[in-house]
Design goal:
Length: 237
C-alpha cells in the first residue's frame, strides 16, 4: 500500500499548482483569506482509507505573497495519522515548512527548476499546456463564478485564478477540497503571513534521515510502477 504521506504530498502539490505561477500578477484579486474543508475516502488496493482536514490560504500583492496551511488526518486499517503542512510564496521564492524536522526549506526560482517542485517555476499557461490541461466548464462556489479546469486526474474551480475547489481521484482515493469561507480584497498583514520560528535552510542542508519516521516507505515493484505512472501525469512535458 502507498504510504499516506506520499499520497498527501502529491495532493498538496496539486492544490498549489493552480497558484504557483511565475507571473507579475498571480491572481486577478489583490488580497484574500479563504478557508477550506478537506475530505478523503476510498479503497486503495483493498484497504479502506478515510480522511478529513481543514486548510487556509492568505494572500496579498495580487498573490505574489501567499501563505497556505493545512491540518488533516487519515485513517488506514484503524490507524490514524495526523499531518500538518505549511508553504509560503514570496515573490518567486517558495518556503516549505518541515514540522517533523522543525526547519523551513527555501527554494529560489532557480532552485525550483531542478527540484521536485519544478512545475511551480512555469507560468500558468506553460504548466497547463505541459500537463495537458483544458477548460471544461463554468460553475459557482458560494456565489463566486469559477472556471473549471481539468488537469487529469485533477479538476480545479478557479475564481480569477484563485482556487475555490479541487477534486482528484488517485489510486482509488477521492480527495475533495472546497472553500467554506471566502473573503476577498481584505487587509492581510505581515503577521498573518508569518512562518513558524524555525531556521531557514536550503533543501540540500536537510538531507539527513534519522529514525523510522523519516525512512522512505518500502513499496512493491507493482506499487512503484503505479507511483511512476502517476507522477508522469504531473511532470510530463
Amino acid at each position: 500500500m502507498v504510504h499516506p504521506k506520499i499520497l498527501s504530498a502529491l495532493l498538496i502539490t496539486l492544490a498549489m499548482m493552480s497558484a504557483l505561477c511565475a507571473q507579475p500578477q498571480r491572481y486577478e484579486v489583490k488580497s484574500g483569506a479563504i478557508e477550506y474543508t478537506i475530505t478523503r475516502s476510498g479503497n486503495m488496493m483493498g484497504v479502506i482509507v478515510n480522511g478529513k482536514g481543514k486548510a487556509k490560504t492568505l494572500f496579498k500583492a495580487w498573490g505574489n505573497i501567499e501563505l497556505y496551511s493545512e491540518e488533516s488526518e487519515m485513517t488506514t486499517m484503524g490507524r490514524t495519522e495526523h499531518e500538518r503542512e505549511m508553504t509560503k510564496i514570496d515573490h518567486g521564492k517558495l518556503f516549505v515548512v518541515d514540522f517533523d524536522q522543525r526547519v523551513i526549506n527555501e527554494y529560489t526560482p532557480e532552485m525550483l527548476k531542478n527540484s521536485e517542485y519544478q512545475e511551480f517555476a512555469k507560468t500558468g499557461k506553460e504548466m497547463i499546456d505541459s500537463m495537458g490541461g483544458k477548460k471544461i466548464g463554468e460553475d459557482k462556489i458560494m456565489g463566486y463564478p469559477c472556471e473549471i479546469w481539468e488537469i487529469a486526474p485533477v479538476k480545479l474551480w478557479l475564481h480569477k485564478g484563485v482556487m475555490l475547489k479541487s477534486e482528484a481521484e488517485m489510486m482509488g482515493i477521492k480527495h475533495t477540497t472546497i472553500a467554506t469561507k471566502i473573503d476577498l480584497d481584505v487587509t492581510v498583514s505581515e503577521s498573518d503571513l508569518k512562518l513558524p520560528d524555525f531556521p531557514v535552510k536550503s533543501p540540500s542542508e536537510n538531507m539527513i534521515f534519522d529514525g523510522e519516521e523519516n525512512e522512505v516507505p518500502q513499496l512493491t515493484p507493482e506499487q512503484m510502477q503505479q507511483m511512476q505512472e502517476l507522477m508522469k501525469n504531473f511532470s510530463a512535458s
